[in-house]
Every structure is written in C-alpha cells, then in structure tokens.
Amino acid sequence: MYLSKLLLDPASRQVQSELSNRYELHRTLTAQFPSEKRSDINLLYRLEIPDQQIYQPITLLVQTSSEPDWSELARLGLLIDSPQVKNFDPDLPTGATYFFRLLANPTMRKKQADGNSKRIGLYSTEAQHDWLQRKAQQGGFRVESFNLLDMGMLESIKRKNDHIHKIKQLAVQFDGILNVIDPDLIKHALVHGVGSAKSFGFGLLSLAKR
C-alpha cells in the first residue's frame, strides 16, 4: 500500500468546491489512475480540517494499493507543496497495540415495508459505540479505549443519469487504542476500509505505533 499526504491550497476554487462535495473529490483522486480499475486502486482518503479561523493548507491523507502520481493535481494548482508518498506494508502481529483514527459513517441496514433494506444513520452515542465494536470484531481487532467526536452531517452531490442526488451523511471520528486479534482480518480492514460511504471520505483506518 501507499500512503500520501497532500497539502491542498484553501485558496483554490476547485479545492473549495470539492471540500463541500466529497464525491467530486473522490472522482478527482481516482482520475489520477487512468489506466487502472477502481477496484484495484482501493482508494481511501480522509480530510484533516484545520482551524477555519487560520489560513493554512488542508491536509488530505490518501491510501492506495497502486503507486500514485499526483503531478496533475500540482499542475492544476490544487497543492501548495510537493506530495509526500511512502510505501506502507505494516507488520501487524497478534497482540500488537496501536493508536488509531477512523472517520466513519456509522449506519445499519433496516428492512422496509416493501421488503427492501435501507441504510440509516446511527445517531445515538450508544449505537455508535456498538457499531465500532462490531466493526472491530469483523476487522480482527479489539478496541481498548477510544474517544468519539461528532462531526455533524456532511453534504455531497452525486450526479447520475442526468439526475442530481443530494446526500447527507453522518460523520463521526473515533480516536483511540486497539489491539490486533487477527492479523489477516485487520490487514483487510486497512486495505478496504471500515464501514460505508468510502467514496465520500469515510473508512480510512490509520494506525500509529503506541
């Protein structure tokens, strides 16, 4: 895997536009891999939003299975510094402990009267706690401790077949400490992300040695 740290220029009109429409940001990022299938790229990203009262670059963290080339973003004036890219192939032995960060869209599928299921947001703190524990079990790790930050609703617009769909998604950031239970499962969670709405900037699980 490859981890990239991109510093976005907050004065760029395109950056401003895509900050308010995360789906378009995802399209811009995937467009930098023109010869590869989207499923092979495994692109995950997370925006680290700075203090809005201070003029400073906006940090965008991007993880991909393919080696990226961000030169076109620089040519378009979206970046204010050279991209930082490093190869990432972590050793995740059973019992290892890490700090983690996850920006997530906690949801569950609920069956409707017509028999179809619909994804709904989990708005209570208790439900969000339970969601994280379920994802941890599925992802081969145990959450030792964590803090939860409600980031509110993120709005995006998705265009499909000449129709415009306005999408609102709950954003919750989890920061804490986890223990590795199953190295293969947590590696899968790292590569493919955790939870839903990955095209909108959710699901990137970041680890740092404790």
- Count the strands? 10
**What is the fold-level CATH name, i.e. the topology of the largest domain?**
Alpha-Beta Plaits
N to C succession of SSEs: EHHHEEHEEEEHEEHE
Measured distance between first and last alpha carbons: 21 Å
Number of domains: 2
| Proportion in β-strands | 35-45%
Helix content: 10-25%
Assign the CATH class of the largest domain: Alpha Beta
Q: Largest sheet, described in full?
A: 4 strands, antiparallel
Low-confidence stretches: none
Instruction: Specify the structural class.
Output: alpha+beta
Tell me, briefly, the overall form.
globular
Number of helices: 6
The value of Rg in angstroms is 18 Å
Second-tier CATH architecture of the largest domain = 2-Layer Sandwich
CATH superfamily annotation of the largest domain: Crispr-associated protein, domain 2
Mean pLDDT: 91
Can you walk through the features of this model?
The protein is an alpha+beta fold and 210 residues long. It folds into 2 domains: 86 residues, Crispr-associated protein, domain 1 (Alpha-Beta Plaits); 113 residues, 2-Layer Sandwich (Alpha-Beta Plaits). It is 23% helix and 40% strand. The longest helix has 14 residues. The model has no long low-confidence stretch (mean pLDDT 91).
Give the structure's gist in a few sentences.
The protein has helices at 13-19, 22-30, 38-41, 71-75, 125-138, 183-192; strands spanning 2-8, 44-48, 58-64, 84-87, 97-104, 107-111, 117-121, 141-160, 163-180, 205-209. It has 210 residues and is of the alpha+beta class.
